[in-house]
Amino acid sequence: MQISNKLYQLAEEVETEVGHIYQTIEQKALVNHQRVLQAFRDNRVSDFHLKGGSGYGYGDAGRDVLENIYAAVFGGEAALVRGQIVSGTHAIALCLLGVLQPGDNLLAVQGSPYDTLEETIGIRGNASGSLKRLGVNYNQIELLPNGDLDWDGIDRALSADVKMVMVQRSRGYAWRPSLNIDGIKQLVDFIKARSPKTIVFVDNCYGELVESREPLHVGADLIAGSLIKNPGGGIAPTGGYIVGRQDLVDMAANRWTAPGIGAEVGPTLNHQRLLMQGIFLAPHVVTESLKGAVFAARLFERLDYEVSPRYDEYRTDIIQAVKLGTADKLVEFCRGLQSASPVDSYVVPEPDGMPGYEDAVVMAAGTFVQGASIELSADGPLRDPYAVYLQGGLSKEYVKLGVLSAAERVLNIAK
Ligand SMILES: *Cc1c(COP(=O)(O)O)cnc(C)c1O
Fold this sequence. Notes:
This protein is an alpha/beta fold. It has helices at residues 5-42, 61-74, 88-99, 115-121, 151-157, 181-194, 246-256, 272-302, 327-339, 396-414; strands at residues 78-82, 105-108, 137-140, 162-168, 199-203, 222-226, 240-244, 306-308, 320-323, 361-364, 377-381, 387-391. Helix 2 (61-74) packs parallel to helix 8 and helix 8 (272-302) crosses helix 10 (396-414). The longest helix has 38 residues, at 5-42. 50% of the residues are buried. It binds pyridoxal-5'-phosphate.
């Protein structure tokens, strides 16, 4: 790997500057690790819980224990944690399609939801089975120009009979602030004061275990996410999770398999131990990712790029955005990161269309688990402001090497 001495020196200075931030991250990790460990102890996890079932998967004790652990860690009555949920989008879609009925109103309060959900809702394309084709009404309140929630707009929208408000914790591919747990609490309190029966659903992707509380701890009703992001700890080979109120998790489970069968089936095969070990390690792996993000933020600030969040800003997700400004720099950043990956280092990323995404996207992910963005990945849609979104990192040292390789490539174009 070609990294100039000058860049190495800058990296050393950055490490010193960010040391105090690393400490605050470690303090939160301890709280989260304690909660996870306590859930394992309370459930008396034993070797036989780590072995997977086959066939229909009736009465799988390990699976039940894993779901109890997720419910305890994330603060819900029940959980559905399954390898057969293929992605975060799938887990979120199960919540929407399981709970919402024809004629119901769904409200989003932070502008457009994550790209892949636009087709699930039916605001883009005309996919069969979308909420729109099922007759669910959708309304979206834009964020104010400064990135704040439009409280007046939300207030007005809640005067209709809103069945569900959909909230997104992390920024996704948008240059906007993430919504942290205090912000989610304020929003939940606002909604419940006006419309107590409205269900608050949170897309928790990339936010898991970053703060010491989760959305369900502050009054949300249902959350969902992907196991190849934070909660899988870089170990889970596939899967998604849903946690929340028992009745809502049951509805999502009925949508997942078949009405009446719900969560009773689903063999854990050979991934049972990996999902267990993944949630156990997740608080630490999230910590490594966060430290890497802080390092990347400060490094690119020092190189005069606008970054979000800034290195010392409060974080609620593992995403680090860097505004690179041109398509060339975005592509070169991803190529530099890819070349510093343990798997597929020789592959050269090219921008291309992706199922579920509207703009061409360039992605770097040289991962052990295909597409696992908790391991370290970078991506960005080829649209203004050509921001790269960096996330994950199995170890902080690995993130550092990847980011330096990416920075070197960006600096070389600038010359
Ligand atoms: C990743 C992500 C999703 C979708 O998850 P996939 O596993 O990519 O389908 C949804 N929302 C947010 C905010 C995400 O970061």
